[in-house]
Amino acid sequence: MSYTTYLVGGAVRDRLLGYPHDEHDWVVVGATPEQLLDAGYTPVGQDFPVFLHPKTGEEYALARTERKSGVGYGGFTFHTSPDVTLEQDLQRRDLTINAMAMDDQGQLIDPYGGQADLQARILRHVAPAFVEDPLRVLRVARFAARYHHLGFQVAAETLSLMRELARSGELQALNAERIWKEISRALMERNPEIFVQTLRDCGALVELLPEVDRLFGVPQPEQHHPEVDTGIHQLLVLQQAARLELPLAARWACLLHDLGKGLTPEEHWPKHHGHEKKGLAAVKAVNQRVKAPRECQELALLVCEYHTHCHRALELRPETLLKLFKAFDIYRRPERFEQFLGACQADAQGRTGLEDRPYPQADYLRKAAEHARAVSVQPLLEQGLQGAELGKALEKSRLHAVAAFKTD
Ligand SMILES: Nc1ccn([C@@H]2O[C@H](COP(=O)(O)OP(=O)(O)OP(=O)(O)O)[C@@H](O)[C@H]2O)c(=O)n1
Ligand SMILES: [Mg+2]
């Protein structure tokens, strides 16, 4: 018996959109696993009907239907058989724009109105079975972030399904790896703030990142923050982070830098004295809950603690500058310090009306750091210094170098 292969999912969607896409997913209709094994495909997992092409390595999935059989991921049963149709396979998918297929003649198969929704710029679920996978809440928010600049919006009825999922508590059953994968991809999209905003719109933000959610409604002094609301500031900072094309760790740090402001007692509003240190515990909690990679965790903690130092860079004493450099280990980790400067710039410019204000602090710190790094240990070694003494002398030379830079 012969089988038919179709291109599906993101590749079809992005081809129709004229959007770059470099991964191809295929669906195979009318085949048994044995047929694919005989043709040289390798199975991806034990009980999962997905195979890798012998030459291209791309994913080929047997057409399947899915049923949810329990709470959480893994609570799925698949049904594959050669008589599962393409339409059935497409129906189990998340969004209409993701539920189109293309045959080898370039002919589009679009039973659920995906093309119309692409044209209307709508992210709409295919069927009520959307709710069987809570990860889709994050996926839709991520697509909203990715295609925002093209005018895409989440359909009202899809948003209500997302709200239902958020309210059901099912998001708690998602494992950290899947959540992080979505968050990290979303942060790297062109409008990462739309991801956070969409999660908030459907009540998922408080489920997934309650520490971020609680910033909404918390005021800041209007003098420095014309947008006033800390949650809005948060979104604006992410927008700037994308505009500055910051790498993932810096964007993650941007998202978490002000968590301390959510912990200020109301009677102190709109001031947030000491929010930098106060936020550290919250940053740590989020870091661990989503199992962010080490680099992201570290930078988020450092940016939380030191972003105000960066804004005040020009007023800092040489001693304080050196302490900052030490905290960042700028001598061995120059790229991490650069990411810190980027995140702080996004923080300074992520304020209504201040998006284009200059941020001379970054260059100032960059130069000061260069002077500290340029201090050579060689002359000190030649003086015969060792151990703690050597360390102290090196510190002193650096202090001189930074002080000299400051008076310049
Ligand atoms: N929770 C999920 C994950 C995936 N899919 C379906 O599987 C396809 C492929 O999934 P994936 O590669 O994760 O996403 P893409 O849509 O290809 O988008 P991208 O890779 O660009 O993120 C999707 O288009 C969608 O039809 C789904 O319905 N529900
Ligand atoms: Mg894909």
The structure class reads: alpha+beta
Instruction: Please give the radius of gyration in angstroms.
Output: 26 Å
Query: How many beta-strand runs?
Result: 11
Looking at how many chains there are and whether they match, the oligomeric state comes to single chain
Biggest β-sheet description: 7 strands, mixed
EC number: 2.7.7.72, 3.1.3.-, 3.1.4.-
Subunit structure: Monomer. Can also form homodimers and oligomers.
Protein name: Multifunctional CCA protein
Keywords: ATP-binding, Hydrolase, Magnesium, Metal-binding, Multifunctional enzyme, Nickel, Nucleotide-binding, Nucleotidyltransferase, RNA repair, RNA-binding, Transferase, tRNA processing
Question: What does it look like?
Answer:
- Strands 3-4-5-2-1-8-9 form a 7-stranded mixed β-sheet. A two-stranded antiparallel sheet has the order 6-7. Strands 10-11 form a two-stranded parallel sheet.
- Helix 14 packs antiparallel against helix 15 (294-311).
- The longest helix has 21 residues, at 387-407.
- The termini are far apart.
- By secondary structure, it is of the alpha+beta class.
- The chain has helices spanning 10-17, 33-38, 86-91, 114-120, 135-147, 156-167, 176-187, 192-201, 205-208, 210-213, 230-243, 248-256, 275-278, 280-289, 294-311, 318-328, 334-349, 360-374, 378-382, 387-407, and strands at residues 4-8, 25-29, 42-43, 50-52, 59-62, 64-68, 76-80, 101-102, 108-109, 122-123, 153-154.
- The chain is elongated.
- Strand 3 (42-43) and strand 4 form a beta hairpin.
- It has 20 helices and 11 strands.
- Bound molecules: cytidine-5'-triphosphate and magnesium ion.
- The site of magnesium ion (MG) has 4 residues, from loops.
- Mg(2+) binds at residues 23, 25.
- CTP binds at residues 10, 13, 93, 139, 142.
